[in-house]
């Protein structure tokens, strides 16, 4: 894991980045690796790559963060990327894998109400995706909206959103 994280930091080659992120994402699917990756500063190493302009790499970053987000301690570190993820969802092509990866991450991050306030500005986008997206996008958006609607503090924001 340490070598993979070092590889991510030391290369600009998108193909190598993609492969390293896929491997890290697969490793992050196992809870035993969550703490190890976090303790190696892996979340910030992976998260910094969200600024990468290549959609395929961003998608792999989001997949890795999604797998890491199944841990409360990891969520505390991942939450700093929520606003960026929301922007990436809004700017991504409709129904793209990048958009779906971002929505999956937000689904996990919205299971508890701790980070709902960070998604308020994206509610109009979510509602737009619900009406314009394909079935896969709609299902993923509904998961986020259901999680947000479980929080009474979000009710006003959801009902007043301009679509």
From TrEMBL:
<dbReference type="InterPro" id="IPR011989">
    <property type="entry name" value="ARM-like"/>
</dbReference>
<keyword id="KW-0496">Mitochondrion</keyword>
<dbReference type="InterPro" id="IPR006911">
    <property type="entry name" value="ARM-rpt_dom"/>
</dbReference>
<feature type="domain" description="Armadillo repeat-containing">
    <location>
        <begin position="1"/>
        <end position="163"/>
    </location>
</feature>
<comment type="similarity">
    <text>Belongs to the eutherian X-chromosome-specific Armcx family.</text>
</comment>
<protein>
    <submittedName>
        <fullName>ARM10 protein</fullName>
    </submittedName>
</protein>
<keyword id="KW-0812">Transmembrane</keyword>
<keyword id="KW-0472">Membrane</keyword>
<dbReference type="InterPro" id="IPR051303">
    <property type="entry name" value="Armcx_regulator"/>
</dbReference>
<keyword id="KW-1000">Mitochondrion outer membrane</keyword>
<keyword id="KW-1133">Transmembrane helix</keyword>
<dbReference type="GO" id="GO:0005741">
    <property type="term" value="C:mitochondrial outer membrane"/>
</dbReference>
<keyword id="KW-0735">Signal-anchor</keyword>
<dbReference type="InterPro" id="IPR016024">
    <property type="entry name" value="ARM-type_fold"/>
</dbReference>
<dbReference type="InterPro" id="IPR000225">
    <property type="entry name" value="Armadillo"/>
</dbReference>
<dbReference type="Pfam" id="PF04826">
    <property type="entry name" value="Arm_2"/>
</dbReference>
């Amino acid at each position: 894991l340490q070598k993979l994280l070092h590889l991510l930091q030391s290369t600009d080659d998108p193909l190598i980045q993609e492969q390293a992120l896929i491997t890290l994402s697969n490793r992050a699917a196992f809870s035993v690796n969550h703490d190890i990756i976090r303790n190696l500063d892996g979340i910030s190493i992976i998260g910094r790559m969200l600024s990468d302009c290549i959609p395929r790499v961003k998608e792999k970053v989001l997949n890795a963060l999604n797998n890491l987000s199944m841990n409360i301690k990891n969520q505390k570190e991942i939450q700093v990327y929520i606003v960026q993820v929301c922007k990436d969802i809004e700017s991504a092509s409709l129904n793209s894998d990048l958009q779906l990866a971002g929505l999956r991450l937000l689904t996990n991050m919205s299971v508890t109400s701790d980070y709902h306030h960070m998604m308020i500005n994206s509610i109009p986008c979510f509602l737009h995706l619900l009406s314009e997206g394909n079935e896969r996008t709609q299902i993923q958006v509904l998961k986020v909206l259901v999680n947000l609607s479980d929080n009474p503090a979000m009710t006003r924001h959801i009902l007043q959103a301009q679509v």
